[in-house]
Amino acid sequence: MEFMDVVRKRRSIRRYKPESVPEDVLNKILEAARIAPSASHRQPWHFIVVKDALTKKQLGVSQWATEAPMIIVGCVDTAIRSPPLCYVDLAIAFEHIVLAAVDFGLGTCWIGRLGRGEMIKAVLSIPDHVKVVAVTPLGYPDETPSPKSRKVLSEIVHHDTF
User: Fold this and answer.
1) What is the model's pTM?
2) What's CA 22's distance to the chain center, in Å?
3) d(CA 44, CA 12)
4) Which of 52, 144, 148, 46 is nearest to 97 (CA)?
5) Where are the domains of the chain?
6) Is 53 left (phi over 0), alpha (psi -120 to 50) or beta?
7) Does domain 21-142 have CATH number 3.40.109.10?
8) Angle at 13 between CA 9 and CA 14, to 5 degrees
């Protein structure tokens, strides 16, 4: 798929088919995150792939997210790179996951408001110096959301000055 087609096709998916994602496809998606750029090439990220049904439920995310075949938890090691740059690094790598998933016909839904980050850390035995930043379910979409309207370029792009 052409890059701009991938970008335009991406949607936040909240309903997933139960079929599992082949391991080789998952590895290609994670490889897209691995090769993402980071500030000073520090690569402060860690990704935890959660497939176990009980563990997914214990994460405290919305029920619909636990129905996907897996959830990817994106974390940053604050001992490698302190905030806020580590968050930017993770966001870039996580978006690589999201876009690579679309290229393989898979859906995701970036969940970044994690009021239960400490619960997720406890369930997944995440060390103290590692912070949970985002999670996404990953699986084959069982819905096709309509595109949302976007601002036109002239509303958001400025040349030479604001």
Assistant:
1) 0.95
2) 18
3) 25
4) 46
5) 21-142
6) alpha
7) yes
8) 165
CA-wise closest residue to 132 among 85, 78, 75: 75
Averaged pLDDT in 10-residue chunks for the chain of 162 residues: 97 98 99 98 98 97 98 97 92 99 99 85 97 98 96 98 98
Tokens of 59: 């994460």
Instruction: Decide the pairing of beta strands 130-139 and 107-108.
Output: antiparallel
Q: Which pair of tokens denotes residue 146? A: 């309509």
Cα distances (Å, whole numbers) of residue 156 to 44, 78, 148, 152, 153: 31, 33, 17, 7, 5
Query: Which residues have a Cβ under 8 Å from the Cβ of 127 and sit 6 or more positions away?
Result: none
